[in-house]
Amino acid sequence: MNDSYIKIKRFTRWLRFGIVIFCTLLLAVACHRGDSIPVNDRIINTACRQVEHAAGVTCIPEKFERLVTLDDAENAIALGIKPIGAVISDFSSYWQDKLTGVKNIGTIGEPNLESILALKPDLIAGSEYQQDIYPITSKIAPTVLWKFEHSGQWKEVFKNISVVLGKKEVGQKVMEDYYRRLAEFKQKMGNKLSKLKVSVVRVYPNNINLYLLDSFCGTVLQDAGLSRPESQNFTASEAKKLFGNQIQMSIGNELIEKADGDVIFIWTGENDAKGNQTAQKKLEQLKLSPLWKNLKAVKENKVFFVPNYWIGSGILAANAIIDDLFKYLVNTP
């Protein structure tokens, strides 16, 4: 598929949506008097509170009922709120049973604006990288976008979401449960905890990446009291200066020793089936390499293959990682 085709397809999609918005506004003009043009009556008639966010200031309805999330619905679901629409992807598979009745509004980074409009939301929530569509979504319903520089900031984001959605106390309880589970993990690990260096590796179709201290999974490992190999022991600020990326670094097969540790957690995972197949093939090739076979974790059979929620960004994925820590480090000899 060439670039021209993609550009035409995107232009067509935006033009079609623009026509829908235009017709909606015309209908609103026909049905209302005065200078204002309300797209959604509930926005006008519902009490709201001013919230400052990544795209500006929005008046959030005190009693919203039809939430649409431009990202995964994970954090809202953890707070006991089921959106009417959300992006549902392979990353949602771990909590798929909680998504019954939630309309899939598109793919990561490309929510379908027509689908959002059809759902008639009274609140839309997303991340700051979606600011390009904010002028449109904010006309459909009040829209709030979270500041989200990288996945290691997930706890701050979850706290902000819980406050904006009026679930501050619920959010605090959820995080208390998270730390309670980690305390139990530390207690069961005992003296083994301080002796383990945990490596985190992702195999891409064209390279191998190591996930660092302030990555999403890296923060969970820190909270669990687990140490990292020196090759992965970089904070976000250090990593940005050294590698141009705050949470991960790339290595070639010839530097695979940097992926070693007492334990290796490893996964593949792309946004499409073709990418996944290519990454899986690269992983199989890697496992045949003499350099890979010479790693300490490989020799001691301490390499564990895990799902892609290890690169998540929410509390449900964090708890899924804790499940894996119990499974592979506590319950495995």
UniProtKB/TrEMBL annotation:
Assigned protein family: Belongs to the bacterial solute-binding protein 8 family.
Chief localisation class: other
Domain called Fe/B12 periplasmic-binding: residue spans: 66-333
Statement: the UniProt record of this protein carries the keyword Signal: yes
Keyword Translocase: no
Keyword vocabulary terms for this entry: Signal, Transport
InterPro entries xref list: ABC_transptr_periplasmic_BD, Bact_iron-sidero_bind
Name of the protein in its database record: Iron-siderophore ABC transporter substrate-binding protein
Provenance organism: Atlanticothrix silvestris CENA357
Location relative to the cell: Cell envelope
Highest taxon above the source species: Bacteria
GO cellular component, one term: outer membrane-bounded periplasmic space
GO biological process, one term: iron coordination entity transport
